[in-house]
Task: structure prediction
Amino acid sequence: MRADLERLVLRTNQAFGPVDILICNAAVNPYFGPMAGITDEQFERTFRCNVLANHWLIGMVVPGMALRKDGAIVVVSSVGGLRGSPVIGAYNVTKAADMQLVRNLAVEYGPSNVRVNCIAPGIIRTDFSRKLWQDPAFLSAALRGTPIGRIGEPEDIAGMALLLASPAGRFVTGQTIIIDGGATVTVGGI
Result:
């Protein structure tokens, strides 16, 4: 996986020049169920993709950003990093780690004017989260008490990524921005 990321950065630099904005949005969740049932291999795969790959990729592009004294990095995490779950616990652990990774890297890279932030979406209508929104009973439970009363769409996340990557977000770093229709401010949900 690391070699693939190195090739990605090398080819990007060759084609477009040094990276000035990085959005880390890859994630896996190979196991759906209680953490007592996850295999070591499934947990390790989840951690490697959801946390370690972000760490590697950020480390590969930051030197160029630091040299230019400008750059924006956005890690897409999840509100799962703020909550427990009986079915996506290992995934949630990795998303909490992403939030802390962002805080630490913001401290390290801030003096070079490299901003590092995190977006924590709630349930968004994507293929990745299909198990969370396709079952009507599960979806109803997830939305119980959610002020907006619906799950998110990919466009609901894109605007925040644009803000954090643009000059409009130039004084924001080390933050986790929750985008969940208000689900985390209520008692209901998953």
Notes: The chain has a mean pLDDT of 94. Helices lie at 2-16, 40-68, 89-109, 130-133, 136-143, 154-165. Strands lie at 21-24, 71-76, 114-121, 176-179. The first helix runs from residue 2 to 16.
